[in-house]
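Input record, target 12 of the design panel.
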């Protein structure tokens, strides 16, 4: 598996991962209306391409197929972090996370943090994050629980190497 920065022509493949994973995996914890709000079937691809161009995510590629992506902002915020719905449990998320952590350490980022869905909570705990806040908002007339999570990184050291 190769982890690298995305290439300019991959925005639609990244969207497909986001859309299908949201609708096929996160359905365990959220309503269909909530999922459609987060990943609409009629997404404006021009806006999505702009967003991805600005965030410059890391992507995971296996056998020539995009199988995951994640964004790391300069302040340590991990935004979108998604693995292809057919590649769940195959090490994609761990490989992407390891690269994010290395990138953070290269850039002197000491604190990683994310708003984590119920679906992804166990993965982030496994990566050494702790829950700093549990939230529950009403979205589309139903509770949408998520978690603020963080991990402190000692500068110059990665426990994943």
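The sequence produced for target 12 reads:
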């Amino acid at each position: 598996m190769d982890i690298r920065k995305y290439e300019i022509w991959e925005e639609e493949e990244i969207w497909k991962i986001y859309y299908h994973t949201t609708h096929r995996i996160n359905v365990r914890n959220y309503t269909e209306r909530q999922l459609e709000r987060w990943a609409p079937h009629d997404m404006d691809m021009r806006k999505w391409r702009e967003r991805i161009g600005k965030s410059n995510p890391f992507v995971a590629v296996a056998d020539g197929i995009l199988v995951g992506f994640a964004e790391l902002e300069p302040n340590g915020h991990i935004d979108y972090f998604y693995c292809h719905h057919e590649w769940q449990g195959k090490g994609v998320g761990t490989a992407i996370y390891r690269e994010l952590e290395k990138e953070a350490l290269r850039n002197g980022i000491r604190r990683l943090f994310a708003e984590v869905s119920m679906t992804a909570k166990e993965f982030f705990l496994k990566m050494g994050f702790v829950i700093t806040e549990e939230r529950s908002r009403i979205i589309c007339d139903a509770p949408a629980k998520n978690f603020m999570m963080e991990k402190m990184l000692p500068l110059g050291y990665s426990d994943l190497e």
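Strands lie at 2-5, 58-62, 65-72, 78-83, 111-117, 130-139, 142-152.
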